[in-house]
Amino acid sequence: MVGGGQLARMTHEAGIPLGLRFKLLSDTPQDSAAQVVSEVVIGDYRDLDTLRDFARGCDVITFDHEHVPIEHLRALEADGIPVRPGPDALRHAQDKGVMRARLTELGAPCPRHRIVTDPADAVAFAAEVGGFPVVLKTVRGGYDGKGVWVVRSEAEAGPPFRAGVPVLAEEKVDFVRELAANIVRSPHGQAVAYPVVESQQVDGVCDTVIAPAPALSEELSGEAQRLALRIASELGVVGHLAVELFETRDGRVLVNELAMRPHNSGHWTQDGAITSQFANHVRAVLDLPLGDPRPRAPWTVMCNVLGGDYPDMYPAYLHCMARDPRLKIHMYGKDVKPGRKVGHVNTYGDDLDDVLERARHAAGYLRGTITE
Ligand code: ADP
Q1: How far is residue 153's CA from residue 234's CA, in Å, rounded to a whole number?
Q2: Measuring CA to CA, which residue among 203, 75, 194 is closest to residue 144?
């Protein structure tokens, strides 16, 4: 697996029961996954020689992030190493402009959008979609809301253009909430769809995921799942695909973006689904039959734990575990820095209010924003 973040750490964990030999290419030995994987190569994934040396002897390569240059992935394929997901799929997750163009071609519902060349062009785009505000995005390199600007005037439109990559302008969708349709697809073309979830962001960072999305009509949920399955099949995705969606006030879904790897909106599956996204990602990458994606409980809630006041989690563990024996804690071994995602918790049960309260309490307590 290329990339040493928490997604690699949890994918590795899912491979252990299968007896997999898991090799990691990581930036530093301190990275979340590098702390727990036995076979770690420290190196730069942007360097082709490093990637080639790393890939030698691997049966298949997969990723913790979407940033490996496409031409390097093609070179690995030419060396005979299966790359999953492959470059033809992955380029849609690397570049929001490419993604929008392809989805539009497929007739997938998207916010109105186009590439804009400068602040004046952003003003012209705003006029085309009924005025400001509009959303400007760098086509590459964004994550957790970085690389996304809500722009209210030409004067505010400057910063995105300084990043040196094309800028995608989108209408600002007046959404009811954000959803994610997560599916896993194998090279065989077998695919499974998880229940559609609601994903709540705070300051551009995922905070809470509720599975399944409360009060989502069966019709819209089915539509979102079918859309994700169709995108995966048309783009040739192998592994986990997260389709981030906006639910609009008139009862439609619009695609926000695609992630071709395990995703934060699927962390609930570790404790709330029969087969987790990580286990199914591993199965897909190895072209094994996929596992059942159905939920184990009526409701599962995931809350992210952001870095807060505690460098030492032990006292917080005492409180959280004593308060809620059903709580599942997943920490990533990262240094605690304010605002950084350092872990998540999962809770499940029959009563959504109770499940939500338990998850929020634990996440807040681990962060230090709740103290009793
Ligand atoms: P990232 O690459 O950081 O995940 P996204 O494209 O997912 O960037 O945008 C981050 C957040 O910004 C979204 O979760 C959503 O809340 C908001 N956002 C993005 N695009 C739009 C849009 N067209 N209309 C309204 N809000 C948007």
Answers
A1: 37
A2: 203
Q: Which two tokens stand for residue 276?
A: 């987790």
CA of 65 to the centre of ligand 1 (A): 18
66 Cβ closer than 6 Å to some ligand 1 atom = no
**DSSP per residue, 33-61:** TTTT-SEEEE--TT-HHHHHHHHTT-S-B
Distance CA(227)–CA(116), nearest Å, equals 27
CA 270 remoteness from chain centre: 15
Q: Which helix (H) or strand (E) holds 365?
A: helix 352-367
Q: Ligand 1 pocket check: which of 168, 176, 256 to mutate, most ligand atoms within 8 Å of Cβ?
A: 256
Provide block-wise average pLDDT over 10 residues at a time, the chain (372 residues). 98 98 98 98 98 97 97 98 98 97 98 96 97 95 83 94 90 97 96 98 94 98 98 98 97 97 98 98 98 98 90 90 98 88 97 98 94 84
Whether pTM exceeds 0.90? yes
Measured CA to CA in angstroms, residue 63 lies from 26, 68, 87, 223, 261 at distances of 11, 9, 12, 28, 7
